[in-house]
Write a structure and sequence with these properties.
heterodimer; A: about 200 residues; alpha/beta; Pyruvate-ferredoxin Oxidoreductase, domain 3; six-stranded mixed sheet; 8 helices; 6 strands; globular; B: about 550 residues; Rossmann fold; five-stranded mixed sheet; five-stranded parallel sheet; 19 helices; 19 strands; about 15% strand
Chain lengths: ~200, ~550
């Protein structure tokens, strides 16, 4: 298998790093080589956050080059559009239908792009752009903080890992009392992406 | 560094870690360590930050290794970092030298699979100090005697580097030979899968015979390394023909794209036509922010309003007034207060600089009623105490604000001497800021609640008017550490006249969509902060009656 490249993006505080850690750990327990790297430091809360994850037989660079991302998993709409140049013509983009306007938008300095604009930007590279109701589905599963399990459920269809590996890895990383909520959210994500990407 | 050196002198193995700018501060004892040598193995991890992801400046700390004449090891990924540590301690003890393990951002901020190896690694000895004046007391007479030993050590290290398994030749196509180290090795392997490689795990001293031999086997030799042409200049000094920084950037972080683009420019790779770029220039930027409920927001807002720095939404483009205050800043979350809308920071240089800079401003003639230094609790304890002593001694009548959130927030909530908890999470001694500040000799000291705007404003105004050095300790828990939450605030839309005053706090929970201002109940921490409720002139921000909707 050649190396699969995945970007997980969103706003600091949404659980991006945890989600990409889980992807990396799941890939590792499935026997793959995996490297992951995050933009951290100044972006602890409220800033743009991106995690690069690469999975394969042998992975060299942890950073993914432009045009090499196979799956873009975006926890926030604007943070999906920002990474358009990393996509190729067969990439899959999964976007949580959620807007968290940056300060510059709140202050009226800049304008938040519409859903159509975001889709048009991403469509310049790939036709496979899917919106999912992550926050809503996580809330319905029991807690909005299960968003990352829901998003992982969405992403799971595009990575060569068994469902049981995903679930075991998630279970090991969330508090026991939230396990069921996260499992429900994961299943919902898996089902929703199958419906919209059909 | 001194603590590490003491432990090493006592015979125990010691690891000292810091990022590139940390070593700037620790260079004094480090130079001494090179001269005295060690007893227990001593390894210094120095993490460089190419591209300044979270640093005030970019620098290549391999120059420090060369300056101190000590060995530098560079791992290429997590597995390599794991394995290199055993070599580092072995080298340290064998050659009586501190060792630098130099990483860069992409080594330190990435995770990759690590296979554990079975020992045996010889255990550290129990602590025991053997009196040895000639080795440990660096009076000039002793330092002079030890000086030639350093040159001798460097020659022996060069010999060691020639055959060390950390320096590895991987022969491929002989047309191109690449000398590389650290993460750049991984990038180069990806960009030039066919080339021959000399992977240097030891980048100082360079293995001259090995490099010469490699140069003789390939048609063209290049160096791929992050930041300065450190290896390249070393090879050039051998009189060998080599290029690298002529086309590979010496500034910022490398990645496979950058290396490939540089290689195309140098004619090492064929030109490819990339797909047209998607134009993303219009997308709003999202710089990092202070968190909703941050205890720094209130004081920074007061500084901003008293300093006449706030500008209502829509005021963009109009000429700004010259701010009333000069606010010297420091290193921590509160540096984010430099961004609009708060605009509450004028300088940020290095840890502890704010107080000295403020003193300098005042001594230069900026009126005392205008100069304010802002520093966090952790940074103050790290390197703000000496400058405050200076301000007491030299009678600088400035205002110093210590924003005390009870942790080291920006770097991930490390404990510090004021928290009463050790780095291992155990109970520890505790330095009380107000006692310390009074003990230094500051007479005008006030401790204030971080979420009470009225008191903060009154205290700041009084300090500015008082012709003596004053310290305001603004105390409030870091919201992402303590995670206190209460019923979120909500905007009573019937009372709200959309004036936008609340938006000037720069709180990301307060959002504005087509003129309608709302509060995101998932982000808002509610009355435990309540700062927005205090700034609303219409008293339209109230406790939500519908409860937490998260």
């Amino acid at each position: 298998m050649s190396v699969v490249g995945m970007l997980v993006t969103g706003v600091g505080g949404q659980g991006i790093i945890l989600a990409s850690d889980i992807i990396g750990e799941a890939a590792m327990s499935a026997g793959y080589d995996v490297k992951k790297t995050d933009t951290l430091g100044m972006a602890q809360r409220g800033g743009s956050v991106v995690s690069h994850v690469r999975i394969g037989e042998k992975v060299r660079s942890p950073l993914i080059s432009e045009g090499q991302v196979d799956v873009l998993l975006a926890f926030e709409k604007l943070e999906a559009a920002r990474w358009a140049n990393f996509l190729h013509d067969g990439s899959t983009v999964i976007i949580n239908e959620h807007a968290q306007p940056p300060l510059a938008v709140n202050l009226g300095y800049e304008k938040y792009p519409g859903d159509d604009e975001i889709k048009a930007l991403l469509n310049q590279r790939t036709p496979k752009v899917y919106y999912v109701d992550g926050n809503g589905q996580a809330r319905r599963a029991g807690d909005v903080r299960a968003l990352n399990s829901y998003m992982l459920g969405c992403a799971s269809s595009f990575l060569p890992l068994e469902t049981s590996v995903w679930k075991d890895t998630i279970a090991a990383r969330v508090p026991a009392r939230f396990k069921q909520i996260n499992m429900t959210a994961f299943e919902a994500g898996k089902k929703d992406i199958a419906d919209v990407s059909r | 560094m001194e603590v590490g050196l003491g432990a090493s002198y006592a015979g125990v193995r010691v690891l000292v870690s810091m990022k590139q700018v940390g070593l700037n501060v620790a260079m004094d004892p480090f130079m001494a360590a090179s001269t005295t040598g060690i007893n227990g193995g001593m390894v210094v991890i120095s993490a460089d930050d190419p591209g300044s992801h979270s640093s005030q400046n970019e620098q290549d700390n391999r120059h420090y290794g060369k300056l101190a004449k000590v060995p530098i090891l560079e791992p290429s990924d997590s597995q390599d970092a794991y394995e290199i540590m055993a070599y580092a301690f072995e080298i340290s003890e064998k050659f009586d030298t501190p060792v630098i393990v130099r990483t860069t951002t992409r080594i330190s901020h990435s995770k990759s699979v690590v296979y554990l190896k079975d020992g045996p690694f010889p255990p550290s000895r129990p602590a025991a100090f053997k009196h040895d004046m000639g080795k440990y007391v660096m009076l000039p007479v002793n330092a002079r005697i030890r000086r030639p030993l350093i040159e001798d050590r460097l020659a022996k290290l060069t010999e060691y580097a020639e055959t060390s398994p950390l320096n590895r030749v991987e022969m491929g196509d002989k047309v191109l030979g690449i000398v590389t180290s650290g993460i750049a090795y991984e990038y180069a392997r990806e960009v030039f899968p066919q080339a021959s490689f000399l992977r240097l795990g030891i980048t100082h001293p360079l293995p001259e015979a090995l490099v010469r031999d490699f140069a003789g086997k390939v048609d063209r030799m290049i160096v791929v390394e992050e930041l300065d042409p450190f290896i390249q200049e070393g090879i050039m000094a051998m009189g060998l023909e080599v290029t690298g920084k002529e086309f590979i950037p010496r500034m910022g972080e490398l990645d496979p794209d950058t290396v490939a683009a540089a290689a195309r420019k140098a004619g090492l790779l064929p030109e490819v036509k990339p797909p047209p770029r998607v134009d993303l220039a219009k997308l709003p930027k999202r710089p990092p922010l202070l968190c909703p409920g941050c205890p720094h927001t209130g004081m920074l807002y007061v500084l901003s309003s008293v300093g006449q720095r706030l500008r209502l939404p829509g005021a963009r483009g109009k000429e700004a007034r010259e701010p009333k205050l000069v606010i010297t800043g420091d290193i921590g979350c509160y540096t984010l207060g430099a961004y609009p809308p708060l605009n509450a920071t004028d300088t940020s240089a290095c840890m502890g600089a704010s107080i000295g800079q403020a003193l300098g401003m005042a001594k230069a003639g900026i009126g005392r009623d205008r100069v304010v230094a802002v520093i966090g609790d952790s940074t103050f304890l790290h390197s703000g105490i000496a400058p405050l002593v200076n301000a007491v001694y030299n009678q600088g009548d400035i205002t110093v604000i210590i924003l005390d959130n009870g942790t080291t927030a920006m770097t991930g909530h490390q404990e510090h001497p004021g928290t009463g908890v050790s780095a291992q999470g155990k109970p520890a001694g505790s330095v009380k800021l107000e006692d310390l500040v009074r003990g230094i000799g500051v007479k005008n000291v006030k401790v204030l609640d971080a979420f009470g705007l009225k008191e903060l404003r009154a205290a700041l105004k009084e300090s500015l008017e008082t012709p003596e050095l004053s310290v305001l300790i603004v105390r409030g828990d870091c919201v992402t550490r303590v995670r206190k939450r209460s019923t979120p605030s909500v905007i009573d839309q019937e009372k709200c006249n959309q004036c936008g005053a609340c938006l000037l706090l720069g709180c990301s929970a307060i959002q504005s969509d087509n003129g309608k201002i709302t509060i995101d109940p998932v982000l808002c921490v509610g009355g435990v902060c309540g700062v927005c409720r205090q700034v609303c002139p219409k008293h339209a921000i109230v406790e939500s009656t519908s409860g937490v909707t998260a």
